[in-house]
Design goal:
Structural class: alpha+beta
Number of strands: 4
Strand content: 25-35%
Number of helices: 2
Shape: globular
Number of domains: 1
Length: 66
């Protein structure tokens, strides 16, 4: 499914990442100034018990480009 997320703040980024991880095609609609900042991606520290443990903690760190 193709999904448009309006904004790439904290909530928009998390929802976009989760949808992309589920196999959806995600596009973010952001202001031009914000687009330049996000061009290189962002780092998300995500705690997901379904992904297993890393160093004794159920955490997965990923770089993601909205």
């Amino acid at each position: 499914m193709r999904v448009l997320v309006v904004g790439a703040g904290i909530i928009g980024s998390i929802y976009g990442w989760a949808l992309a991880e589920s196999g959806h095609e995600v596009v973010h609609l952001v202001r031009s100034g914000r687009a330049a900042i996000l061009r290189d991606g962002i780092k998300l520290d995500v705690f997901d018990r379904c992904k297993g443990e890393i160093n004794g903690t159920s955490a997965a760190c990923t770089n993601w480009t909205p």
